[in-house]
Specification:
With about 400 residues, the protein is an alpha/beta fold. The protein has 13 helices and 16 strands. The protein is elongated. The structure holds nicotinamide-adenine-dinucleotide (NAD) and (2R)-2-hydroxypentanedioic acid. The site of (2R)-2-hydroxypentanedioic acid has 8 residues, from loops. One of its GO terms (molecular function) is (S)-2-hydroxyglutarate dehydrogenase activity. It catalyses: (R)-2-hydroxyglutarate + NAD(+) = 2-oxoglutarate + NADH + H(+); (2R)-3-phosphoglycerate + NAD(+) = 3-phosphooxypyruvate + NADH + H(+).
Length: about 400
Amino acid sequence: MTSKTSLDKSKIRFLLLEGVHPSAIELLRAQGYSQIETVPKALQGEELKAKIADVHFIGIRSQTQLTADIFANAPKLVAVGCFCIGTNQVDLNAARERGVAVFNAPYSNTRSVAELVLAEAILLLRGVPEKSALAHRGGWLKSATNSYEIRGKTLGIVGYGSIGTQLSVLAEALGMHVAFFDTVSKLPLGNARQVVKLHDLLAQSDIVTLHVPELPSTQWMIGEAEIAAMKPGSILINASRGSVVVIEALAEALKAKKLLGAALDVFPVEPGSNKDEFVSPLRGMDNVILTPHIGGSTMEAQANIGVEVAEKLVKYSDNGTSTSSVNFPEVALPTHAGKHRLLHVHRNQPGVLSAINQVFSDNKINIAGQFLQTNEAIGYVVIDIDAASSDLALEKLGQVPGTLRTRVLF
Ligand SMILES: NC(=O)c1ccc[n+]([C@@H]2O[C@H](COP(=O)([O-])OP(=O)(O)OC[C@H]3O[C@@H](n4cnc5c(N)ncnc54)[C@H](O)[C@@H]3O)[C@@H](O)[C@H]2O)c1
Ligand SMILES: O=C(O)CC[C@@H](O)C(=O)O
């Protein structure tokens, strides 16, 4: 071994925020990583900049905003683990520009969200939130008025992805009719049917539930006009992102009794920790279920997410495998026993690959294995070579125009 460039595992620092499940920490430790700092809440601003400046991997959930400014203060950062589905809290382009790979857990909490939504639909159709709140204040509302079975009702799902489809199957098992709206043509499961226009879906659903990602096209997609298009006496459920619903329009519709009730798990502004105050125009409305962004917060989901994302970070750290990254070219790599592995992340521009190959031919370095994948913005080349040449090759690769980041593993 001649090189001192591969960072020893004992020096690789992880920062895990927002109460990432201990299963992640256990897995990292079992894989030989010992420098793991945990913080139970989200960090922001100067506090986040100070912490991220020194770490190689950061783990977050939905509250920590990783902006271009934050990435500019993270010179050592190799990868981000989002211990959740949503990645809207991360500036994925800024990460990519710095050669930082971002991973998430696209499936582990989907069942938890689907179960919560169904439970809320049942409780709201029975008027349970108001009846329970009244009973807590000493009241007694034994009445069938505005109480309905879920059987035979139409569930309108907006966004028929991992969560929407699970919900579809579970809802049909309870005897519901399912209709959905999605911008992409989707195979309907069971007897579900796709509706072409959002407003048509809204007009025919007894319960509308939102399962779209946060995107420019989904921002405020449910506003005054959409709520007006909903059936009188119907229910709105949002467990997607707070930016999807215009909360003031919803509050007005609830006050006007246009809607029977609503359940919200996500909000335009959410407290960063359990100690901060939750502020919303929906506070105090007994026919509204308000939950603190816990759609995916079950012991099962969090434990699975901890393992899933930690495994992805370990694979990327140990071996360079970037499979299922949300912003990075995906490369599944074999082991590299006996060889040094060079990782080169570069802008996807003409001439970079030939310049890389030139480094090896000019310096007479034999390539034992080479792997390449590109996306529209960056390229990721992995090259296995003999240990004796790795210091020189790494230095030369770093000088190739268009280079964003280099690493060596052995
Ligand atoms: N409340 C929680 O705790 C919680 C937990 C998990 C996920 N989520 C949120 O739920 C979202 C959905 O999760 P998923 O796993 O089902 O995602 P997914 O990517 O599998 O599915 C999203 C679906 O929305 C569709 N879509 C995109 N834009 C649309 C538009 N403008 N109109 C209609 N459909 C559109 C997509 O085509 C896709 O089918 C996540 O992005 C995340 O923000 C919240
Ligand atoms: O656990 C969280 O903070 C986010 C959960 C959910 O919104 C997700 O995107 O998976």
